[in-house]
Amino acid sequence: MVKQVTIISGKGGTGKTTISSAFASLAENAVIADCDVDAADMHLIMGPNILETNDFYGLKVADINPDICTYCGICRESCSFGAIGRDIRVDVFGCEGCAVCEYVCPSGAIRMVDRKAGEVFSSVTRFGPMAHAKLGIGEEASGKLVSAVRTTASELAMKYGKDLIIIDGPPGTGCSVIAAITGVDLVLIVTEPTVSGMHDLERVLEVVNHFRIPALVCVNKYNINECNTQMIRDYCRDRKVGIIGVLPYDRTPTDAMLEGKTVIEYACGGFSSNVHDMWENIRDCLFAEKCSVFRS
Fold it and tell me: Taking the domain 3-57+137-288, which CATH number applies?
């Protein structure tokens, strides 16, 4: 059975892609899935060679046939999103696909049509297969696109006989995060000892707990505020959430990214060694049904 681990964070910039890419370089039989589709950047490190591209269609949008339309304006008056202009043309970026205009149109001039919102890629990297995507400019439905990427990753795992999918998830607590964690075996939450980082850790833990998914926490850049780091330790201990890694603020991730490498490829010891130890624990949690974590 294919195991799945998702790396997420309550806010952006905590280092989850750094950790996800490092895990990908350490895993021996995994598929990589970049599900941070609103701001995909894992390809900068993975250097994927795209093998297959599939169009992604998000929400349907209204299409008005000018040959049938009587320009009565009922559709414009009924649109709660202001997506139909005075000239009775649809603003596709404003349309939410509710189809009320199609329902109220007396002449049957409106229909809901598919609209390409992005692309899903099946690729190969130096670490194995990768599923990733590109969301079109101004497009929404990122949750649906995350699901499409995960479906592609599962297909790649079956095709190549992989036993693990490493998912680089999006930040926040929205629908794209829910799509990235639903049904996985383990969630790793990467946080930082800042006020916003601590607050967002609480929020994202609530989401993960709602879906009853096992969760672990990694505190990145712990030494920028060791007092807050201790508060995170206390918070996690009180809620019986394991802290699986405590990483220092270090230039290694930045320097590695500038060279298009993972931190594991770029350097040995220090930061990279800590990430390696974290991966060993993650692997044990997934496959050996044991977990050595910090609970202090």
Answer: 3.40.50.300
